[in-house]
Every structure is written in structure tokens, then in C-alpha cells.
Amino acid sequence: MDTKQLKLMTLDEAVSRIKDGMVLGIGTGSTIELLVPEIGKLVNDKGYKLTGVCTSERTEAQAKALHIPIIHVNDATHIDLAIDGADEIDPELNLIKGGGAALFREKVIDEMAAEFVVLADETKLVDYLGQTFKLPVEVDCFNWRLVMKHIEGHIEGEVTRRMTADGEPLVTDNGNYILDVHLTQKVDPYDFHEFLIHLTGVLETGYFLDLATEAIVGTQLGVKVLSRY
Hints:
Layout: H1 3-9, H2 11-16, E1 23-26, H3 30-44, E2 51-54, H4 57-65, E3 79-84, E4 88-89, E5 95-96, H5 103-112, E6 113-121, E7 135-139, H6 144-152, E8 157-161, E9 177-183, H7 189-197, E10 202-205, E11 207-208, E12 214-219, E13 222-227
Parallel strand pairs: 1-2, 1-3, 3-6, 6-12
Antiparallel strand pairs: 4-5, 5-11, 7-9, 7-10, 8-9, 12-13
Family: Belongs to the ribose 5-phosphate isomerase family.
Organism: Staphylococcus rostri
InterPro entries: NagB/RpiA_transferase-like (IPR037171), Ribose5P_isomerase_typA_subgr (IPR020672), Ribose5P_isomerase_type_A (IPR004788)
């Protein structure tokens, strides 16, 4: 099975976590794009009273097109469940996220949620964070090059500003740039996050540490559910 088929395998498990009346954090990325129509079916076909809080403008547009009620995060008093994808998942369910350039909004919503469930295919499982995927860091456009130099002076590896397919700098929904940090050796994610988050100009890092409560993973042998508890 290809990766899309593996992602599709996770949807039934994900939908089973959604209960009528929930305030639902809805993530960003290719897996979540497959999930949103299933959420739409709960609302439109089964009459669920759900309220969505979206992590990106792209997800919000998709959800609204399917008549899923959406509110802004500042109008949410709580989030019962957040469902999102991940670019890497380590054995402790720590994550790297941000491949879809929505890491700041994702972290805001995932931190608010009482439960945070991750959907992924088995290629996202790693021994340590940074093993296969670059670490995204969202930075202010004003001093992005200075931030890049600080990071390059701190690690063994390469830092690049993310570009669009048109060759222009990618700009996030928050009006910022993304720096992708290619780590050539294992680093402590807690220590590296602390270094990065205190650099002037860094909004947030793609480390999602101690946040996920469960991971639903599509594998060649079926769906595997990993729990922090």
C-alpha cells in the first residue's frame, strides 16, 4: 500500500474519537484533508453538533465548504479533542510538525485540547526527532537571516528558508517565514527548543513535546494505536 492508503486506514479510528457536541481542533496537512470530509458527514448526515477550530486558513476553507461550523480560537473557551498529522513521531509520542507551515497555530490549538490525537502513516515513526525530517522554525521576516546565523552557529547542520514552488519565500498565515533546520546528528529536542524559542524573532518551533495523547498509525499490517498513557 502507498502512503495515501495508509493514511486512509486511520480515518475510522479517528472518527470514532469524535463525539456529538465536541469542540474539535482540526489540523492541517494531507492526512487531515482526508479526514475533514468525514467530519462533514458527521455534521451533515448524522446531525452531530460539532464546532471546529482550525489550524490554518486552508483547513478552515475546506471545513466551511462542507458546512462544518467553525469558530476562531479566541472565541473558544475549550477544545475537547484536537486531531492533526505529524512529520515525525518518536517512541515517546513527541513530534516534529510544520511541513504544512501551520506549526504556530497547530501548537496553540493542540495545547488547548484536552486530548490530542495524531494521524500518520508508518513512515513517520522514527527513533529520534530530526532523523528523517527537517525541523521547521517560524520566524519574523524582519530578522530571519540573523536568526538563521544564530542557529547555524549552534548546530551541526544546514538551515534554509523555505520557498514556494514559484521560487518565492513561503509566507505563513501569520505573515512569517519558515526556516528548515537539517540536523545532521541527534540533538536533545527539549534543549534545542529552549535555545530556539529564546532567539529574538522566533515565533515557534516545530517540536511538539509532551502534547500528543495518542497516535493512530496506518501500517502495512493494519492500524496501530500508540498511547502516551
